[in-house]
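Before anything else, study the sequence and fold tokens given here and see whether the fold suits the sequence. Record follows:
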Amino acid sequence: MIRLGYACISVKNKNNPNKKTTVAQVNKLEPAARLKKLRQVMQTNFFNLMDLLAYNVEHRIFLYRLPSEFVPLATHPVTADWNWAEEFAWDFRKAGEYIRKHNIRVTAHSGHYSILNTDKPSVLESTIADFSYHARVFDLLGLDDNSVLVTHVGGVYEDRSAALDRFAANFEQLPAEVKRRLVVENDDVSFTMVEVLELCERIGVPMVLDIHHHMCLSNGEDWVEYLPRIIATWGNRTPKIHISSPKSEDDFRAHADNIDPDQFLSYMTALSDYDLDVMLECKNKDDALLTLRRNLEKRGFKGEAAMK
């Protein structure tokens, strides 16, 4: 079975769990008012998360990427004295119960500033803090190891081999709760599918194949030939891949608003042999998913399960 999902923001349902505040805004407030502001933002995000999860279930969408800003300023020193995990323990428990009841897979993607293969200690420290935050959210929700945190390798730093070695070395510094959730995706400018696959096999973590990124950056390899090895990195977990369509020939790296159904179907010969989750990365988010689903059904596929 193949399940489709989308990232972070619904364009059809306006209640999205990505409300935030800024350091500048909260620093203008007295401590009591600051806490009140942070709590209000997080309460809104929990309300919106529950509403959005219900919307996803109604539309048979069981793969969803949680926005990184779900807990406002979670890794910033300005919130160091705020025990958000304890204050919102009931909310985390209830959301987790709903997610598990409906077999929803919730994942996350680290931000651009989280770079595990950095050569700067301060960046490594902030990266570990960011990864730990995401892992803590999933742990508080009571989610299993299929709730993964996706990251890229990082920069080349003028030495590809050394950059990959540094990722592997820094990975060993991660807390166990992060290691069990971290997965690595090939990118479109720095590290190819093969390089990321070899790194994942080396350190024992799953690899997320991004087919569009592979189309942007490769040495001519056929991703289909490497698919069994990529799937094997997931062990007993459900593999996850990313699919998007290029915006145009001139702006090939950018994501299109929607998914090209013919292009998507061209991948099915290889992908339909597996049970896996497909994250659609496109500007129109859930609307693009529902549009793709309708287009697939017109071509004879009655929902994702029928692709098997």
